[in-house]
Amino acid sequence: MEKTQIIGVDLGGTNLRAGIVNENIREPVVAQPLYAQGNRTQILEQIFGIIDKIINPGVKAIGIGVPGLVDPTSRIPYDIVNIPSLNETDLRTVLEQRYQVAVKIENDANCFALGEFHFGAGRSCSSLVGLTIGTGLGAGIIADGRLFTGKHGGAGEFGMIPYLGKNIEYYVSGRFFTNVYQTAGEEAYRRAIAGEQEAIKMYEDFGRHLGEAIKLILYVLDTECIVIGGAVKAAFAFYAKSMWETLGDFGFSRSLAALKIETSSLINGNILGAAALHLPTADRRP
């Protein structure tokens, strides 16, 4: 990356976080709760407030990840369920007029994938899928070194695909434990850490569903790397074996043999990914 400073903003449903990314430094991150049910003016003031805390004359661009879809042509976000007043807001134009720097906006799962591609587990790959497994299931796709979002910005919504009478997200997200076992994900993790076999079996079951989801991703995209982020990544040791066992009957041996599945080790990966919206595709230097 050039020495130009870029602000990355992670606009979540409950929290707002931002930091400066430059050549070799990921500046300390600032964070604050987000009043997501505020009106448009209130939401914008919160975004201005966190950017104002860190912006300086060396900042030349701003990247923002949002929890919804972004139209690839207009770059206007829509279907932002958790922050309804931000829907159809031309956030890019508003921010460019206020700060006089280039602004790019993208779905937060796509930012996660870009962060891994430029800074994390995907640095050696030309294609990857970043899976954010938390309250829901999000995915970002890097294909042949480029972010792929689809015609309307909705590519990678694997969680919406019908599966076992529900959809994939029902079984491959933190809500799996409540949906299937009536147990909170945090409680299942605590019990698994304590060695309770019942909780460990829950994770083994989760791993089988994740394996089926990954097979679908491989058949569609034949990606070389899958990076898992989100809260469920912490329990990877409990479901990795059953996940790989489920992948064992995948139809194309060469693709499976080359597949790399890792958990994200990045701190503030979504902020890095938001900043990476401004990076040239081929330039993946930290």
UniProtKB/TrEMBL annotation:
SUPFAM superfamilies: Actin-like ATPase domain. InterPro entries: ATPase_NBD, ROK. Signal peptide: none annotated. Gene3D superfamilies: 3.30.420.40. Belongs to the ROK (NagC/XylR) family. This is ROK family protein. It comes from Chitinophaga eiseniae.
